């Protein structure tokens, strides 16, 4: 298996940072402007999941099931225990600032954390015409990957393509390199289930509601998954992720999507074009 640890530097040249003589004679206004224009070099690195990432990963996933109480500890340990498929993003070797993984629903369906996710989604889909599709997917004998991607809002968008290249490359490698035929087979995903969040403009009560229109995607990849999805549904969530003044007139929604594995090649190509 290839070593998937990677690094990426987001940087630009500081403004006159090493010209001490000029800096000493500049005005306060010029110094302030220089500070605003300068950029700090930051290395973003991809790591295999490790037990010491527990608290950071748990923090990233704290609102994964909105404000529900569930076995988040078991879910975090499941993610960290799958070291060959999954990536933790760090900046300068500090706490995790992002993660991505894909978990086989059928393989782990008896675990309390996976059962909690199923129950959460089924409850939110109870009034959706897609409920039967969600239930069928969860009960399917096929390999369905729960694609989990969480990261802080200040993580550069430039990391999206390499981060998704990492997970889908690892999935492909796992189908060849895992130690047993059962494990290799478990990564031959036919569909992916994605649970994420979007914003939508609030519609006055007297106006008709377009359930599928005018989404504001928080993560650029989610817009592509949405375009390529075979079905989806939304539901209102309680936990807010942005300041109230930033979301005035917007409603935060959970978005659940099913995406065929056959669409991943197109997704990767579109993501590079969207971000790069």
From TrEMBL:
Residues 1-41 are annotated as: Disordered. It comes from the Eukaryota. GO terms for cellular component: nucleus. Pfam families: BCCIP (PF13862). Belongs to the BCP1 family. This is Protein BCCIP homolog. The lineage of its organism: Eukaryota, Viridiplantae, Streptophyta, Embryophyta, Tracheophyta.
């Amino acid at each position: 298996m290839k070593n998937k640890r990677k690094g990426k530097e987001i940087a630009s040249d500081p403004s006159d940072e090493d010209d001490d003589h000029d800096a000493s004679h500049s005005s306060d206004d010029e110094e302030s402007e220089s500070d605003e224009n300068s950029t700090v070099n930051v290395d973003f690195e991809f790591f295999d999941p490790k037990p010491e990432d527990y608290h950071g990963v748990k923090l990233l996933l704290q609102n994964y099931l909105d404000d529900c109480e569930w076995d988040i500890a078991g879910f975090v340990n499941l993610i960290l225990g799958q070291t060959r498929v999954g990536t933790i993003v760090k900046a300068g070797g500090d706490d995790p600032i992002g993660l991505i993984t894909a978990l086989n629903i059928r393989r782990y369906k008896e675990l309390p954390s996976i059962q909690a996710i199923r129950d959460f989604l089924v409850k939110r889909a109870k009034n959706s015409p897609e409920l039967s599709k969600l239930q069928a997917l969860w009960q399917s004998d096929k390999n369905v990957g729960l694609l989990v991607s969480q990261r802080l809002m200040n993580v550069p968008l430039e990391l999206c393509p390499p981060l998704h290249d990492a997970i889908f490359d690892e999935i492909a490698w796992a189908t060849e390199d895992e130690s047993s035929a059962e494990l290799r087979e478990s990564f031959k995903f036919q569909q992916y289930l994605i649970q994420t969040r979007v914003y939508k403009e609030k519609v006055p009560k007297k106006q008709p509601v377009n359930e599928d229109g005018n989404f504001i995607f928080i993560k650029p990849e989610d817009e592509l998954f949405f375009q390529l999805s075979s079905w989806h549904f939304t539901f209102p969530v309680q936990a807010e992720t942005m300041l109230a003044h930033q979301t005035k007139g917007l409603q935060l929604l959970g978005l659940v999507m099913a995406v065929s594995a056959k669409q991943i090649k197109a997704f990767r190509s579109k993501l590079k074009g969207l971000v790069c």
